[in-house]
């Protein structure tokens, strides 16, 4: 194998591996976002920071 072929193969493998890692990261972030969007209502008492409690019921406030 000549030096030029080795460089092309190494560059191609590096590109494929880096694109694969970026794809896996995007997939995992999407899954984490879907999970957070779905379960955020079930775990409202764990939310920190400013939130609007004006529309919460007495039962929810009693749990806090």
Topology record:
Elements: H1 3-39, H2 58-63
Transmembrane segments: 6-24
Keywords: Membrane, Transmembrane, Transmembrane helix
Question: Can you describe what's shown?
Answer:
By secondary structure, this protein is an all-alpha fold. Helices cover 67% and strands 0% of the residues. The protein is built from two helices and no strands. The longest helix has 37 residues, at 3-39. The chain starts with a helix and ends with a helix. Keywords: Membrane, Transmembrane, Transmembrane helix. The chain crosses the membrane at residues 6-24.
Q: How many individual helices?
A: 2
Enumerate the spans where pLDDT stays under 50 for 5 or more consecutive residues. Answer: none
H/E series, N to C?
HH
- Span from first to last CA? 69 Å
Helix share, percent: 55-70%
Mean pLDDT: 79
Total number of beta strands:
0
Largest sheet: none
Shape: rod-shaped
Keywords: Membrane, Transmembrane, Transmembrane helix
Transmembrane segments: 6-24
Concise structural overview:
This protein has 64 residues and is mainly α.
Write out key terms for the chains shown:
64 residues; mainly alpha; rod-shaped; transmembrane; transmembrane helix; membrane
């Amino acid at each position: 194998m000549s030096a030029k072929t080795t460089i092309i193969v190494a560059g191609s493998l590096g590109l494929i591996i880096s694109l694969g890692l970026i794809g896996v990261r995007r997939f995992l972030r999407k899954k984490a976002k879907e999970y957070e969007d779905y379960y955020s209502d079930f775990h409202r008492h764990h939310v920190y920071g400013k939130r609007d409690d004006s529309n919460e019921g007495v039962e929810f406030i009693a749990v806090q």
